[in-house]
DNA sequence: CTGAAAGCGCTTACAG
DNA sequence: CTGAAAGCGCTTACAG
């Protein structure tokens, strides 16, 4: 049942040509005559020849494969990024191999070890939440395997990075609340151990400062993982204040959604009483009522850009470039949670 | 900067042993003395030897790699399945390479072609929505590359399959509505070209028949993709009836969510006036208000089972087994959309 | 324009 | 318990 596979040699014997010529003909090498190329290609088709890519990778030391390490693939942000990576990679003849660190430094190190085995030409990484030092990735620099980091990126060494400007985005989000007339603005913050959430908090504060509004420390609520349940707890805390905030910038959409739901249940009107802005433009932001104003974090584009940058580094190594850092443009999507719809 | 990699030969020279012995020692071959093993392993560690997995794959014809073809990875169901696959694969020393068919038959065929190049030891597939005939996958049988299909599986040939019982699940969901006292029950159906949605409709009808309830053809609304927007349209259609249904079984959660939202906007109380059941247990089902009663479709487990079955077929080929079909147990998760919470 | 030959880095059947 | 040798299926520098 199981057929032996056709190899270059089989084709060569069949056509009375050398394996070299077959190889070149299939590779559309300029030195081969058109007649021969056609003959070879027809025969290859006829016998159902599929080149053994492992043999080819072995010989050329190129696998046309990209490794991706993400915390979890079932987080929508990451699945969108991966989708962007796969899209760009596919168009350029690369395939993508995926690993989940599960936000465990230990597992991230194991994966880094595995990936040193020549399986991939380059690596795209979003660091695990536990990762503070990136020594386990420095090896790849020495091996000449390019890396691109996105979202959670290393701070302890120069690296190729694709990020958004969290500070600016948070500033824009907060400014939007201010322009809508909010004066007493709260923030639900992510872990301050993570740079991106720190930057969002900073951007929030900077906007208040620019517009000479007071920073109410007690309205800045800290969460660990910006989870939906944590958002519920934050919302309840706000409700205990003698005076509610009139605007809240949430560091992600999940917490924004829970605030909306808890507030509405308590008769707080959104956006009339409190305006809410989220961050990420998750699918739920379009479904929750009122629809959520949020920052579009360009996840798909982040994937595309990561793949593009990585493949460029794989294919033409420019000895003079040590690392590149690319910042993507985010945008504020204004919806009902900060603005009455004119429906 | 870029170091030459250490090979078996380097180790051999360093230790005055043959490459054969090094290879066996690292592989923990029983014929090698413990002393030698230790010596070799220490040296390998010292020099930072990483075996070239491409060379090894080339030699053994095993890549320890699984190919996955999904319609899109940014659909939550698929990202959960992939997560389950990656998890099981990782534990068993396999890695996973992902391709998106984008629900295009043409692209699916291209990918099938690519995967014939020896890159993977086996393949897990969810067919594109356009796929009716699976000839492009039959090649893998001949090549001895095992395949496992999940969710959308082939009907035109025997294959390894992991599915849920859509008929039974739909039956259970509908029966639940009936037991809650619903008598005039509607259904929002997916494309009847797709077996799983056909089975859900059949299960729905079977439950009504068993309990001797009328099947109101006009309350069975057909959609193309079970999208959120399509759900909105269906909901509006229901509202135009002189008499509303008192229960609706939706073939997925998106349409269920839109029905809930549209109905509530029109003052229809859920579950008092109309009880709603969805299908899939998407994250939104826990967030929408009221929370959605739905069928847990075991996406993660489906991934695990697919990987498990595939790896079994890769590692011990049993000549007597032609194909296996595994049906996973789903369960109904009862929430507020069919039952008043006792809070 | 085509071919002969070497070699990529492993693994393994065979020999001792 | 260890080694010599062959070979997996390609690619490519060299020769003609």
UniProtKB/TrEMBL annotation, chains A, B:
Signal peptide: none
The keyword Cytoplasm is assigned to this record: no
UniProt xrefs under SUPFAM superfamilies: lambda repressor-like DNA-binding domains, Periplasmic binding protein-like I
Top-rank lineage group of the source organism: Bacteria
Gene Ontology MF: a single term: DNA binding
InterPro entries listed in its UniProt record: HTH_LacI (IPR000843), LacI/GalR-like_sensor (IPR046335), Lambda_DNA-bd_dom_sf (IPR010982), Peripla_BP_I (IPR028082)
Protein name as it appears in the record: LacI family DNA-binding transcriptional regulator
Species per Swiss-Prot/TrEMBL record: Aureibaculum flavum
Phylogenetic lineage: Bacteria, Pseudomonadati, Bacteroidota, Flavobacteriia, Flavobacteriales
């Amino acid at each position: 049942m199981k057929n032996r596979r056709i190899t270059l040699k089989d084709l060569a014997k069949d056509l009375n040509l050398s394996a070299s010529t077959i190889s070149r003909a299939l590779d559309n090498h300029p030195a081969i005559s058109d007649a021969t190329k056609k003959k070879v290609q027809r025969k290859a088709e006829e016998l159902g020849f599929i080149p053994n890519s492992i043999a080819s990778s072995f010989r050329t030391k190129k696998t046309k494969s990209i490794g991706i390490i993400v915390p979890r693939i079932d987080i929508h942000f990451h699945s969108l990024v991966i989708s962007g990576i796969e899209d760009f990679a596919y168009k350029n003849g690369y395939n993508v191999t995926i690993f989940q660190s599960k936000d465990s430094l230990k597992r991230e190190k194991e994966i880094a070890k595995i990936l040193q085995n020549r399986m991939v030409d380059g690596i795209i990484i979003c660091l695990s939440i536990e990762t503070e030092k990136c020594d386990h990735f420095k090896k790849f620099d020495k091996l000449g395997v390019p890396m691109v980091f996105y979202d959670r990126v290393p701070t302890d060494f120069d690296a190729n990075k694709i990020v958004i400007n969290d500070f600016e985005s948070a500033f824009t989000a907060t400014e939007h609340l201010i322009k809508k007339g909010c004066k007493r603005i709260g923030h639900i913050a992510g872990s301050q151990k993570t740079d991106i959430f720190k930057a969002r908090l900073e951007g929030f504060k900077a906007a208040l400062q620019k517009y000479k509004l007071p920073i109410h420390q007690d309205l800045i609520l800290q969460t660990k993982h910006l989870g939906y349940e944590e958002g519920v707890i934050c919302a309840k805390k706000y409700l205990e204040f003698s005076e509610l905030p009139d605007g809240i910038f949430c560091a992600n959409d999940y917490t924004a959604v829970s605030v909306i739901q808890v507030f509405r249940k308590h008769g707080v009107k959104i956006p009339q009483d409190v305006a809410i802005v989220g961050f990420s433009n998750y699918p739920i932001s379009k479904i929750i009522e009122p629809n959520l104003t949020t920052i579009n974090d360009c996840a798909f584009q982040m994937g595309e850009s990561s793949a593009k940058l990585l493949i460029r580094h794989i294919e033409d190594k420019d000895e003079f470039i040590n690392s590149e850092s690319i910042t993507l443009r985010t945008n504020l999507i204004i919806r009902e949670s900060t603005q009455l719809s004119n429906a």
